[in-house]
Amino acid sequence: MFSIVIPTWNNLPYIQLCVHSIRKNSSYPHQVILHINDGNDGTLDWAKDEKIDYTHTLDNAGICVAVNQAAALGIHDYIVYMNDDMYVLPDWDTALLEEIKALPDENFMFSGTMIEPVDHNNPCVIVQNFGTDLASFREKDLLKNFASFPKQNWCGSAWPPTIVHKKYWHIVGGYSIELSPGMSSDDDFAMKMWMTGCRVFKGVSASRVYHFQAKSTQRIIKNNGRKQFLMKWGINQSTFNTHYLKRGEPYTKRLSEPDPNTIKSERFRAWLKRKIW
What we know:
The chain is of the alpha/beta class. The chain has helices at residues 12-25, 43-49, 62-71, 92-101, 139-145, 166-172, 185-195, 225-233, 237-244, 266-273; strands at residues 2-9, 31-37, 53-57, 78-81, 86-88, 109-116, 126-127, 154-155, 162-165, 201-211.
């Protein structure tokens, strides 16, 4: 079914819970591939004992290098990128497969819908507190109630858990390592998919995961991803997300083609005129 790539960095209790949820709540047997950064907290030994596929670096290689290394081991047609502090909920994979089967081709980018304990004014997220860490996590309550929260399918998928066909993962070259350790790499990957002609960026409401929120990114020195995105593509992230991906709006149909003549940014207009799709 899916090859699920999960970068992890000395976060053993969370990655154990994440893999537990995939095994418990998935409808299909998926391939789990970890990229283990460092792993001296026991993650490396645990992955070996559990016979989980993995790649490994001695230091923290960051998100971009990690997911690219892990994805190279993928054996299935669809690559899912997931965070190690996520807990997948029943039917998460069935909902994605149903959406995939309804499409005429393989050029799409879907995201599952996150349930998060803390409100960060993200219109794509369901805010419900079932625990901010493992000690306060209420798994039984979550499993009982997760499907009851109303949410429409939404536009602008880019955040994990994301799924794309491996054909397009390789066409765009995976995640861009110049954005290591990874700030803005999600939006950059979405832009690269856009440049292949992808106009289906859909957040799937019925595919739900609980997210403990940035248990690893709090520990890193971050790159200036917003500036890098602007310098690379010629527009800023907020413009791309708001006016092109329509992020957070209810999903009704595939995105429309932009008119290059109405675009002020010369560099972005040049990208679009290349017509690489």
